[in-house]
Amino acid sequence: MQKSAVEDVNEFRYLCGLFFADDLVYQRKIPLIVKQSAFTGTDPDQLSEILSTAQSRISVAALDNNPVAFRCNFLSAGAVSVAECSYEGTIAAKREAQGEKLTIFLPTQGNAIFSYPKKSIESAPGFATLLEGEPTTRSLLVGPRHHLALFIDQAKIIGSLTHMLERTIRGKIDIHPYVDLTSNAGLTLQHLVKQLYRGLGDDGVLRQSPLALASLCDAVTFLILENCEHRYSDQLARDALAPAPRHVKRAIDFMHEHVSSTISLSDIAIAANVSIRTLQQGFRQFRNTTPMAHLLELRLVAAHDELSDPRSTSTVSRVAAKWGFTHLGRFAAEYRKRFGHLPSQASKA
């Protein structure tokens, strides 16, 4: 008998022993908001509007003006979205600016090629394709094409890595673009994405289970970060063998507890029961960052989460002040450096 999405998540949690910070969504009883958008058409301009975001436009054209058709169903819940898409004909596309999501294609029919200035990435059945949202010189979808697609906010990817490494992470992670779908990791990835798609559909169990949804989204994110090669893979392996000393962990715990308070480097050192120099050396050696840079990261992520929350009515200035940013211009600059867009452009999808 096939297991439900909730049973799969509980089994995954038991086997991996992972701590899911997003469980707080369930504990706070926050209502779950799922957005569903379905499109069918033959107009490339309409498809361009569907695939584009405010930060990253994707232009679309029919190759040699031959007829094309598409059918897409998108389901979005916070930082993670999933879609089922089918295409007929040959479609040329171009991403014109850096995107804000990691995209994972799970194709079952047809090919696609994503071309960049120095490389090309092919998407074909048998392999998942991972794209970090870089601008393309050209992309081709050769129909008939069918795929499931998973979209994860880059902020969630970076936040998860920051949590795993307990230090500040910025920019692209240069993830390997392929996962063999016949491997254990590939089979599990397929299974979790299908559960997400089914569970978020009409009357899906995940619509009434915010804890299961948060855990499943985290499960997919951690599965990718722990099984796909990227810039921080070696550091994840080293950190698993060499955990940070107690004073670094005490400092990090203190920062989490006082993330919205006015605290100094001296306050953090006192809480960790070490000198400032020892504290700084510990962070450099075990977290490859500084204590204040780590605190800045925690505050930026907290501000981003609140600005991206569709239930939040707070202004940018109020959110900045709440999370310890006294200079609005400096906050906007740091926020843009971290997330790739201004605070006022935070998506509330």
UniProtKB/TrEMBL annotation:
<dbReference type="GO" id="GO:0043565">
    <property type="term" value="F:sequence-specific DNA binding"/>
</dbReference>
<dbReference type="InterPro" id="IPR018060">
    <property type="entry name" value="HTH_AraC"/>
</dbReference>
<dbReference type="Pfam" id="PF14525">
    <property type="entry name" value="AraC_binding_2"/>
</dbReference>
<dbReference type="InterPro" id="IPR009057">
    <property type="entry name" value="Homeodomain-like_sf"/>
</dbReference>
<keyword id="KW-0805">Transcription regulation</keyword>
<keyword id="KW-0238">DNA-binding</keyword>
<dbReference type="Pfam" id="PF12833">
    <property type="entry name" value="HTH_18"/>
</dbReference>
<dbReference type="InterPro" id="IPR018062">
    <property type="entry name" value="HTH_AraC-typ_CS"/>
</dbReference>
<dbReference type="InterPro" id="IPR050204">
    <property type="entry name" value="AraC_XylS_family_regulators"/>
</dbReference>
<dbReference type="GO" id="GO:0003700">
    <property type="term" value="F:DNA-binding transcription factor activity"/>
</dbReference>
<keyword id="KW-0804">Transcription</keyword>
<dbReference type="InterPro" id="IPR035418">
    <property type="entry name" value="AraC-bd_2"/>
</dbReference>
<protein>
    <submittedName>
        <fullName>AraC-like DNA-binding protein</fullName>
    </submittedName>
</protein>
<feature type="domain" description="HTH araC/xylS-type">
    <location>
        <begin position="249"/>
        <end position="349"/>
    </location>
</feature>
